[in-house]
Design brief:
8 helices, alpha/beta, binds adenosine-5-diphosphoribose, single chain, 30% helix, 3-stranded antiparallel β-sheet
Length: 236
């Protein structure tokens, strides 16, 4: 049986692709107060600003590329059934080639109907801008497909389930301060090896192997550490 490898990634995963992290920016996200552009209240107060903000983020994202860390995680699929749970709204794991990516906080390249939230649309790369006037094909207004602060995190349940099933659990580039994503670590079964890659790691429970490195360096090291675990199963 191939082992199930579950990897939880945060903003630090994409830092080396030129996408700035949140905490490192001192509470600002690309010069905007986070609660103005990423909260339900902020969207209600000034939807024009929020639309403009995500238009800018999309423009930035199409010019960014997956880094060596994203690409190396794809390599792990050779040896493990690999599942990524990401707090990132970028699509860099998908563009690197990862086959299973669960987004906890939404997806920048998608919008959804404000009337029927199950109507989710991937934006056309040639038309990435939305405004308060944008309508879907049913005539309904759309909003960024982003989980704002103050909103529920619909994908947390499948994320918890995956975490419970993990034979190996890895955390990369997150300050572990935003809940419920930060709580995933509590659902890892006893005895399962846990690795945490971050150049400025948060405090984690004893027993977690901390690799105090950037994502690109750390994933290289991780592969060295994990390959023998797959080989024990005859999957090497
Ligand atoms: N490689 C790996 N980790 C890095 C790198 C790097 N090159 N550079 C910075 N980091 C680490 C930082 O040390 C920090 O621990 O990435 C982490 C980034 O933390 P946050 O900015 O808090 O990002 P994250 O934990 O993903 O934030 C969670 O906050 O604003 C919300 O919804 C947003 O998903 C986001 C959530």
């Amino acid at each position: 049986m191939r082992k199930k490898l579950v990897i939880s990634t945060g903003a630090g995963m994409s830092a080396e692709s030129g996408i700035s992290t949140f905490r490192d920016a001192g509470g600002l996200w690309e010069n905007y107060p986070v609660m103005d552009v990423a909260s339900a209240d902020g969207f209600e107060r000034n939807p024009e600003l929020v639309h403009r903000f995500y238009n800018e983020r999309r423009k930035q994202l199409i010019h960014a590329n997956p880094n060596a860390g994203h690409r190396a995680l794809v390599e792990l699929e050779k040896w493990f059934d690999t599942f990524i749970i990401t707090q990132n709204v970028d699509d860099l794991h998908e563009r690197a080639g990862s086959h299973y990516v669960l987004h906890l906080h939404g997806e920048l390249m998608k919008v959804r109907s404000m009337t029927r939230e199950d109507r989710v649309y991937t934006l056309d790369p040639d038309n990435l801008e939305t405004t308060t006037e944008t309508r879907d094909k049913f005539g309904d207004p759309v909003r960024p497909h982003i989980v704002f602060f103050q909103e529920a995190v619909p994908n947390i349940e499948p994320a918890i389930e995956l975490t419970r099933q993990a034979d190996i659990f890895v955390v990369i580039g997150t300050s572990l301060v935003v809940y419920p994503a930060a709580s995933l670590l509590h659902y890892v079964r006893r005895g399962v090896p846990v690795y945490y890659i971050d150049p400025v790691p948060a405090v984690v429970p004893p027993g977690v192997t901390v690799l105090k490195m950037t994502a690109t360096e750390g994933v290289g090291k991780l592969i060295e550490l994990l390959k023998p675990l797959a080989e024990q199963d005859g999957n090497g």
